[in-house]
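Customer ticket, subject: "Can you confirm the structure for YdcF family protein?"

Message body: Hello, I'm evaluating your service for our small team and ran a test protein. I'd like someone to confirm that this is what the system normally returns, since I don't have a reference to compare against.
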Amino acid sequence: MSQELRITEQDLGAAEVLWEFHCVYDTPRPADAIIGLGSYDLRVADWCAELYLAGFAPFILFTGSAGNWTRDLYGMTEAEAFAQRAEKAGVPADAVLLEKRATNIGENLRFARAILPTIHSAIIATKPQTQRRCQATLKHQWARLDAMITAPLIRFREQPTEHHGMQALICEMVGDIWRMNAYPARGFQSEHPVPESVERAFAYLVGRGYTAHIPDEK
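Agent reply: Thanks for trying us out. I re-ran your input and got the following:
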């Protein structure tokens, strides 16, 4: 993480504009599978378990190796940590599949598709603030899938965790707006318009220094 920033109410207001854009929250309906995208946030595993136990799908695929924020967090892959959490919530071990190589959203979805080539529908579970990027990436990586993008129902100011505080969260959302703008031309995801209000909030937060999740390409 970059230097500690003094987070102001104006910063939080701009960040909440990004949060509202990033959130999608499709309504879950019965599907062939639940696909849980690994991360630092085990509440996603809890949400996958809740969906499975409610009968939305016959199994869960957890996908994830380690990323920027989980390399030293679990002592195992994200997929394994999520599986352990789901099993503690009551999901049978034989209802869980693991994909342990993915290090970003594109790989999460591409590797999941390779494991589940014949499914027609899936509930994709991720963090609230990565739903929009997941949606745009799916349109490019797995367009034929009937996908519902979901996340735990968490409010913006409740999202920071012990290992990923508010500054890190804002940097993550700023970086993902950068990716929404840059990645279509690179073939990583589909075009997805970013509203002017979101672009203004993004520019303000970049000016404030929330740039730790934007690649240094100089």
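A couple of notes from the result: Residues 9 and 190 are 33 Å apart (CA to CA). Residues 9-21+162-208 form one domain. Feel free to reply with more questions.
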